[in-house]
């Protein structure tokens, strides 16, 4: 079976071992064929049981965000990558960062670095959305406020003792715009604080309320 025949039968850019084996079912030794496909870089093994087509055989770009959902699950994009995705922080972030209720993991793959941080199940189950990407490659990602909450809690050594200190950290260290902070939903952040049992997130909720109140006063 030629590579073009395999490409014709597998419609998606990301596919699993069962799909590949089914495509090669008429061959006498499908596993040997998979080894040959990998050697020729017709397909690329992202991790055991998960593949993408090599550059010459892609019909369109595959979604790295969808790959992140699939490599280690359940999970969804969050933390630095999500903050950059939304334009909340100015830095370009290369590693795909996600949160999961399972144990933290790192996967250094041929298509990039994927990092997963464990968070409590109660914090995991809220604050995510489904994004319909190009070519029917939908993926799960944290909302902007959840990505920020996950980031703040992930910084174990971050000592914040007031809303004012939280504001200095966010604006000076993370370089987040005050207008974005003012637009955050304070009640949702307070709910995240409860689920995480995080004092730092309570300060963030308090800060958002203060900024919103100051904005209302300035418009009177």
Residue runs with pLDDT of under 50 for 5 or more positions: none
- Label the overall shape: elongated
Task: Tell me the major beta sheet.
Answer: 4 strands, mixed
Distance between the termini: 73 Å
Order of strands in the sheet with the most strands?
4-5-7-6
Number of strands: 9
Describe this protein's structure.
This protein is α+β, with helices and mostly antiparallel strands and 220 residues long. Helices cover 46% and strands 18% of the residues. The chain contains 11 helices and 9 strands. The protein has helices at residues 3-9, 17-23, 30-39, 64-71, 79-85, 121-124, 144-154, 163-173, 178-183, 186-196, 199-218; strands spanning 14-16, 43-47, 50-53, 76-77, 96-100, 105-109, 112-118, 128-131, 139-142. α8 (163-173) crosses α11 (199-218). The mean pLDDT is 95.
A few lines on this structure:
The chain is an alpha+beta fold and 220 residues long.
Search tags:
220 residues; alpha+beta; 3-stranded antiparallel beta sheet; 11 helices; 4-stranded mixed beta sheet; 9 strands
Structural topology:
Elements: H1 3-9, E1 14-16, H2 17-23, H3 30-39, E2 43-47, E3 50-53, H4 64-71, E4 76-77, H5 79-85, E5 96-100, E6 105-109, E7 112-118, H6 121-124, E8 128-131, E9 139-142, H7 144-154, H8 163-173, H9 178-183, H10 186-196, H11 199-218
Parallel strand pairs: 5-7
Antiparallel strand pairs: 1-3, 2-3, 4-5, 6-7, 8-9
């Amino acid at each position: 079976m030629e590579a073009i025949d395999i490409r014709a039968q597998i419609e998606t850019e990301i596919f699993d071992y069962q799909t590949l084996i089914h495509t090669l079912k008429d061959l006498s030794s499908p596993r040997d064929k998979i080894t040959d496909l990998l050697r020729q870089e017709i397909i690329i093994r992202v991790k055991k049981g998960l593949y993408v087509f090599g550059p010459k055989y892609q019909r369109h770009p595959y979604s790295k965000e969808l790959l992140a959902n699939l490599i280690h699950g359940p999970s969804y994009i969050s933390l630095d990558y999500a903050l950059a995705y939304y334009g909340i922080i100015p830095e370009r972030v290369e590693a795909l960062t996600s949160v999961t209720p399972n144990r933290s993991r790192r996967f250094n793959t041929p298509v990039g670095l994927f990092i997963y941080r464990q968070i409590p199940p109660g914090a995991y189950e809220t604050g995510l959305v489904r994004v319909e990407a190009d070519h029917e490659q939908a993926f799960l990602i944290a909302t902007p406020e959840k990505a920020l909450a996950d980031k703040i809690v992930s910084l174990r050594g971050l000592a914040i003792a007031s809303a004012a200190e939280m504001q200095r950290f966010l604006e000076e260290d993370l370089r987040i715009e005050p207008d974005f902070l003012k637009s955050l939903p304070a009640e949702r952040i307070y709910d995240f604080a409860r689920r995480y049992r995080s004092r730092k997130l309570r300060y963030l909720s308090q800060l958002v309320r203060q900024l919103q109140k100051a904005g209302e006063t300035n418009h009177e």
